[in-house]
Design brief:
The protein is an alpha+beta fold. The protein has two domains: about 290 residues, Up-down Bundle (Outer membrane efflux proteins (OEP)), CATH 1.20.1600.10; about 100 residues, no CATH class. It contains ten helices and ten strands. The strands form three sheets. Strands 2-3-4-5-9-10 form a six-stranded antiparallel β-sheet, with no helix packed on it. A two-stranded parallel ribbon has the order 1-8. Strands 6-7 form a two-stranded antiparallel sheet. Strand 6 and strand 7 form a beta hairpin. Helix 2 packs antiparallel against helix 4 and helix 8 runs antiparallel to helix 9. It is elongated, with a radius of gyration of 39 Å. It starts with 5 loop residues before the first helix and ends with a helix.
Length: about 450
């Protein structure tokens, strides 16, 4: 596959990369690419489109319908029968159906009840359910549930999108963490090499024992080992991050080596994820996509319960059709008609009552789940707020530790330069500084992840 580099998209076609050795790929820009082009985010948007298509399908049950049924039998030069039944039906909301039809039947062996005038027979009438199906029926229930399914799919779209954005954020933070570690080890490796050259010069002048060169060489090798390990982690982190970088038409991107992470992320992450607003005010749980999804499910189950409760009523369908020959249709001879009555009612209603009970239990089950989810969301949000505040304080402490350890190292180096310290003490001070900087980088990463966790809890990707 042809390789594409994100740099070309972010900053245009760079003709002279040497003049711009590095460019920031900010966290905000990264999330913008994920929201717009990632296949899983697009897939989440398709759920809404599918629900809208389902609504169109459900509305199709109310489409007018034309039916034509023609049957003819001819045997040994005799027409046994020729039957034409055509109709135009209009289903309406409350189970009422309007129907217009035209019948033209003839033949030697035609059933007498199917006999029509020579010009045919027209009819126009109405069919009305007086028990089951009047106030709610399967068609009405399908329409209502399809509308609720759109609301459900919109909530689920947010949940699916937030999951992708969260995973993408973790990959970005991991890239930044490993990038900072590589830069740190590169700096200490350079310092170790400079110190080694100084030790060699001092040994040549007889100011230092030769054994110091061995110790200085060990430090260089340790720094090289740590640097190579951190580079390995950085390369893997970049590949992981590339999984979330796409363009239109599902074209994957590769992260260019020229790009570096956001250097101001610590100050902008809360604004990007909108967690700064949540830290200063309470979050309305009722607006959460999980709660909206559960409420939509409850509404859909309630429609099912109403439909099943309607089955407890007797089935009573009445119909009336006015009959007329086409040539006399304007005479309105209402004495020509056809009526019908269809009645049925189970005596014990055990099946219907059982279905209603099951529907009620499903509604209660989902209501219990929603109550539990509300409480869990409140506790998760409160816990994340506390964690963010605590990590913010820990970051400040870690910065002070790095500053103090750096001061101690500088002081030890000055003592070493005047011959009052040893290489061992300098290495010890430097190791303490390295440890404190690694702790600082780790705390910053935890701080970013904690904000991203809060972003995932509130589930508002828009």
């Amino acid at each position: 596959m042809k390789k594409l580099y994100l740099l070309l998209v972010c900053f245009g076609f760079l003709m002279n990369a040497q003049e711009k050795p590095s460019e920031q790929f900010t966290y905000n820009e990264f999330l913008g690419y994920v929201k717009k082009f990632h296949p899983m985010v697009k897939n989440a948007n398709l759920e809404v489109s599918k629900s809208q298509a389902n609504l169109m399908t459900a509305r199709g049950a109310f489409d007018p319908k034309i039916e034509v049924d023609y049957d003819k039998k001819q045997f040994k030069d005799k027409e046994y029968y020729s039957i034409l039944n055509s109709s135009f039906k209009i289903p309406t909301w409350y189970g009422i159906e309007l129907k217009a039809s035209f019948d033209d039947n003839q033949g030697y062996y035609l059933n007498p009840q199917n006999t029509t005038p020579s010009t045919g027979l027209t009819s126009f009438g109405i069919s009305v359910p007086l028990g089951q199906g009047l106030f709610i029926n399967q068609r009405m229930a399908d329409i209502r549930k399809a509308k609720m399914q759109i609301e459900l799919s919109q909530a689920e779209r947010k949940l699916q999108a937030i999951s992708v954005l969260y995973d993408a954020s973790i990959a970005y933070f991991n890239w930044k963490k490993n990038y900072n570690e590589v830069k740190m080890y590169e700096s200490y490796k350079t310092n170790a090499e400079i110190r080694y050259k100084g030790i060699i010069t001092s040994i040549q002048h007889g100011d230092k024992p030769a054994i110091d060169s061995v110790e200085a060489g060990i430090i260089i090798k340790n720094r090289q080992l740590s640097l190579e390990d951190s580079k390995l982690k950085l390369n893997k982190a970049k590949l992981e991050l590339s999984n979330f970088l796409w363009l239109e038409n599902n074209i994957p991107l590769e992260l260019s080596d020229i790009l570096i992470p956001d250097t101001n992320l610590e100050n902008t992450i809360q604004e990007t994820l909108k967690t700064n607003e949540l830290l200063n005010q309470d979050f309305d749980i009722l607006k959460h996509p999980k709660i909206n999804a559960l409420q939509s499910k409850i509404d859909m189950l309630t429609v099912d319960k109403k439909l099943k409760s309607n089955m407890l009523l007797p089935k009573v369908d009445v119909s009336y059709y006015y009959l007329s020959e086409p040539s006399y249709i304007d005479n309105y001879q209402f004495e020509d008609y056809k009526i019908g009555l269809d009645f049925s009612f189970p005596i014990f209603l055990r099946k219907e009552r059982g279905s209603v009970k099951l529907a009620e239990y499903k509604v209660q089950e989902t209501e219990f789940a929603m109550s539990l989810e509300k409480q869990q969301l409140k506790n998760k949000i409160a816990a994340q707020k506390i964690e963010i505040q605590s990590l913010s304080k820990q970051k400040d402490l870690a910065k002070n530790l790095v500053k103090d350890n750096n001061t101690m190292l500088k002081a030890e180096e000055r003592l070493f330069n005047i011959g009052e310290s040893s290489l061992f003490l300098i290495n010890s001070r430097e190791n303490n500084l390295v440890s404190s900087q690694l702790a600082q980088i780790a705390l910053e990463n935890r701080y970013y992840i904690s904000n991203s966790d809060l972003f995932k809890v509130i589930a508002n990707p828009d």
